[in-house]
Design goal:
This protein is an alpha/beta fold. The protein contains 16 helices and 20 strands.
Amino acid sequence: MLTKLSTSNIINQQRSFFSTYQTKDIAFRIAQLKKLKVAILEHESDIYEALRSDLRKPEVETYGTEISLVIEEINYTLKNLKKWTKSQKVPTSKIALPASSKIYQEPKGVVLIIGTWNYPFQLLLAPLVPAIAAGNCATLKPSDLAPNTSSVVAKIFAKHFDPAFISVIEGGIEVSQELLAEKFDHIFFTGSTVVGKIIMQAAAKNLTPVTLELGGKSPCIVDSDTHIEYSARRIIWGKFTNAGQTCVAPDYVLVDQKIKTDLLAAMQKCLKEFYGENPQDSPDYGRIINTRHFNRLGSLIKDGDIIIGGQTDIEDYYISPTIIDNISWEDAVMQEEIFGPILPMIEYTDIEEAIAAINARPKPLALYVFTNNKDLQQKVLKETSSGGLVINDVVIHLGVPSLPFGGIGDSGMGSYHGKAGFDTFSHYKSLLKNNFLVDIKLRYAPYKGKLPLLKKILG
């Protein structure tokens, strides 16, 4: 484990490297992003193996939800970086004439990125891409709950990058506490709301800005005017990928009572199609990360009636894809983000009541609505607040780098992906440049008799 001194030494090395101004060079940033892409592809098999060990994640899921998203982020950034870094000329107000005004992008400095365990590769490296693009040095703290992935990430960066530019510091809560005691220029955290509050408290001591990517209970509305088969397939995929351990997974389904029976039948059919008669035997179904989360999820199955699934095996960290019915808003399963393969179904008869129920609770990271009704689509858009809204699909907005990704309220603050991530890790410095051609005396004392002319010019 790192000592306080060695942690400080690493950060001081990064500050020294940053002070050489090398990271401000656009060519340097581009070269480092290209190097990161090559490094990831070189270690692709190691990444597959690590995620299989940590989460029993199939290779298709690892590539589709971890590796490819980082590669896509790199590609999109490389395509746009020169445009993003150009200075921007802006109008100058009359009071400052004959000066000119521009906005310049500059990096914040040395940043800390704290990853989480459910997507331990993607959620650590996806924010690193804009951090590099913006010209920062970065310290990465992988999740110790996914130790194999943490080890692979550390190996990749030790081999390919100077720790004075990018360092990986492994360890548990003690290491996190050491890092949070240091002064960074930005902290980017992905994880739970509870830990997010701790991060924000620690950052406040140094007035460090933070980006908090948290979570919450992401609702999924299914209207009667929908394509039931496609809706079921997309919901089942989004919910049970990574054994439900996804921050934007549909947390619960609000379904119009007129199609509830048909939707459940379609969901059951999809589950068998995806994972077979016994998902525990499927090579395509993941596992719960550890005993603590397994026990937490096991207690949530006790609410309501199990319609599909409900099987558990503590020795295998296995909880089957489970759908539960007859749930009330007061049940434990509706009091916290589930973050596992349990999907409560709540029927509604009045869409107004469904929307009111969503709005009565903390703002979610994502909200999903399945409907062909364009008026209802607009109604949900206008009358609800969430980090993101997806119509007739789930989860895949996470993989669109042109869309800012982030929460609101309890589900987080700040956003990233594409230009939004570049902005997060950038400071936009204002420049006003005057000259000595003329010096207008209207602004100087004495002021007697100047007010009418000043109002005429500025009014």
